[in-house]
Structure formats: structure tokens, C-alpha cells
Design goal:
- The protein has about 325 residues and is an alpha/beta fold.
- It has two domains: about 130 residues, no CATH class; about 180 residues, 3-Layer(aba) Sandwich (Rossmann fold).
- Helices cover about 35% and strands about 25% of the residues.
- The protein contains nine helices and 13 strands.
- Strands 1, 2, 3, 4, 5, 6, 12 and 13 form an eight-stranded mixed β-sheet that branches. The protein has a three-stranded antiparallel β-sheet with strand order 7-8-11.
- Helix 2 packs antiparallel against helix 8.
- About 40% of the residues are buried.
- Bound molecules: N,N-dimethyl-L-histidine (AVI).
- The site of N,N-dimethyl-L-histidine has 11 residues, from strand 11.
């Protein structure tokens, strides 16, 4: 089941078809997140090999008091890619936001969570937004304009190519007043084996997450992808400093939809996701180029993951 409204369904269909018809076929990683995909992603976050979530969480556990000293209380907390809102909820007791704005492409997940939060925190205005923020976006007027803190955890910044990451951060900067800022988590460059294991877990949950994109496309575009004909491939590309996820055809096959088709030969791949890994200086430099300064950062003991708080300057 997909969670997009009719206008965004049409745009999504065009985007999917264009990606499938490219010489090197690709699908945007945003198409991982239908209801099943969001559930599978939550499961990924608990996998032993997927160190990102627990490492980031441990950084917050250890340094949240220190972080909150760099952030004025009150204001609006804007949670980009909020999912079940659990990560932001942990900040409430430290940051005391007046308004909380969870934003996610998967609206049903979001509305359930927002309802629960309203009951638990009646003094916080909860304003959920079902929105795709992977391209051009603008926050609506219901979002208060002053003291905006954008919360972007989970290394989701890594899912943008570097130019797009910069453009995305600039959009955030342009929607922050001078009291605003960003609290962002990003996965750092490390030994390839650790990275490869994180995206090739032994339970096969990441493989299911990747393959589910084809079910989502069948649902949205009416393609006839047969999942048994495809396999999950993920590896660290050291030159580009990114994990690449692909779906690889196990045999020659043809995918059909409407009056269109795409032939794949055995071994041909659809690129489904890149997950860039930064060094800490690269990450700080990216934020500075986007217009954020006065950065404070916190990492784990192994320097696997970083959380950065930076101000709009
Ligand atoms: C959401 N994003 C940061 C995850 C990542 O690690 O790039 C998505 C993911 N893909 C496979 N496993 C997790």
C-alpha cells in the first residue's frame, strides 16, 4: 500500500518511470517508505550490524545535557523524516519546545505518532506535515517562524549526493531565522567491513527493505516486478565514500507497465540508494558552506558517528 495523495502519486509515477528507463536504471530511496518499508526500516534500526541508530542514540544519552546548553529553550522543533517521532520525543524534556513539527513522506505513520504525542504533551503544539522534502520545499505558515531548530538525525543527510546535500542544507538555512539552527546526526567514514556488514545483515532485513521498493513501484506504477527475479546488492564504494544499494536482475527479464517496458539483462542493476559517509571535517565544512556556523559536535568513542549542533549565521 502506498501513502501518497493523487497529485504526488502522478509525480511519483513520472519519476519512477523516468528512473527505470534510464540507461543505468535507478529509483529514488524515498520509494522505500511505504507502510511496509517504514516498518522494515524500524527493524533495520534494531539490527546488530546496523550500528548507526544505537551509536547515535548513545551519543544523545551521554551528551544531551551538554547539547541542550547550546540551544535556547522554547521555539519550534522541526523533525525532518520524523517516522514514529521517538528520537525527537527524547529531546522534549531538555529543549522544552513550544511547537513540534514532525515532517515525513509517510503520513499515516506520522499521524498515529502525532496523536499519541498530543495526549502525552498537551502543552506542546504538535503540527504534523506529510511532505516530500527531498526536492524543493517550503514550510507552511502554521510553522512558527522564529527560533526554528531543524532536527535531522539518523544520517539521512548521507542519502543525498553531495551537491544535493548542500542544496538541502541551504534550504534549511533559508528557512531559519538568526536564532535558528540545526541538530544533525551523520555516519562517519570507517573500516569498509563494518560498513558492508551494516547494509548486508544476516537476517536479510535490509534485503527485504531494498526489494520492497519493487512492491511499492508495482503498487504505484502498475509494473509487474517479480521479486524472485531480483537480488539485493550493497557495498562500500571507497572512491565515492558511499554505500551503494542496488537490485540486481538474476536473469534476463522484461518489466512492463502501461504501454511501456524495460528489458534487463542478467546481472544488470537498479541503483536504489547511496548512503554517503563523511569525515568530521567534511561534515563541518558542508554545514559551513550551507550557512551554519558556531558548530559544536559530539561523537562516540570509536568516532563512528557524529552529532553536530550549528547555528544559522
Ligand atoms: C535512512 N538512511 C539514513 C538509511 C541509511 O543508512 O542510509 C537507510 C538505510 N538503507 C539501508 N539500511 C538503512
Amino acid at each position: 500500500m502506498s501513502e501518497l495523495n493523487s497529485t504526488s502519486t502522478e509525480t511519483a509515477q513520472q519519476e519512477m518511470a523516468a528512473g527505470l528507463l534510464r540507461d543505468h536504471a535507478s529509483i529514488s530511496p524515498k520509494f522505500f517508505y511505504n507502510r511496509l518499508g517504514s516498518t522494515l526500516f524500524e527493524a533495520i534500526c534494531s539490527l546488530p550490524e546496523y550500528y548507526l541508530t544505537r551509536t547515535e542514540s548513545a551519543i544523545f544519552d551521554r551528551h544531551l545535557n551538554d547539547m541542550s546548553r547550546t540551544i535556547a529553550p522554547g521555539g519550534t522543533l522541526i523533525d525532518l523524516g520524523a517516522g514514529n517521532c521517538a528520537k525527537a520525543e527524547r529531546l522534549f524534556a531538555h529543549l522544552h519546545p513550544d511547537q513540534y513539527v514532525p515532517v515525513d513522506i509517510s503520513a499515516s505513520h506520522l499521524n498515529d505518532a502525532a496523536q499519541r504525542l498530543r495526549q502525552r504533551y498537551p502543552h506542546i503544539e504538535v503540527t504534523p506535515l506529510g511532505m516530500d522534502f527531498s526536492g524543493q520545499w517550503q514550510l507552511p505558515d502554521q510553522v512558527r517562524a522564529d527560533h526554528r531548530l531543524f532536527f535531522y538525525p539518523g544520517s539521512s543527510i548521507g542519502n543525498f549526493d553531495p551537491d544535493a546535500a548542500l542544496a538541502f542544507l541551504k534550504q534549511i538555512r533559508n528557512q531559519s531565522d538568526t536564532h535558528g539552527g540545526i541538530l544533525i546526526g551523520a555516519d562517519l567514514v570507517k573500516e569498509s567491513a563494518v560498513l558492508n556488514d551494516a547494509y548486508n545483515d544476516s537476517l536479510g532485513v535490509t534485503a527485504a527493505f531494498n526489494l520492497n521498493a519493487l512492491l511499492h513501484i508495482n503498487d504505484l506504477l502498475g509494473t509487474d516486478f517479480d521479486l524472485t527475479q531480483w537480488k539485493h546488492v550493497a557495498f562500500f564504494n571507497q572512491i565515492k565514500s558511499r554505500i551503494e544499494m542496488h537490485l540486481e536482475a538474476r536473469m534476463d527479464l522484461t518489466v512492463k507497465w502501461d504501454n511501456q517496458h524495460r528489458h534487463f539483462i542478467r546481472g544488470e542493476r537498479i541503483h536504489t540508494e547511496s548512503s554517503y559517509k563523511y569525515t568530521l571535517p567534511q561534515l563541518l565544512n558542508l554545514l559551513e558552506t550551507a550557512g551554519f556556523g558556531c558548530a559544536h559536535h559530539w561523537t562516540d568513542d570509536a568516532n563512528w558517528f557524529a552529532v553536530v549542533r550549528a547555528s544559522a549565521i
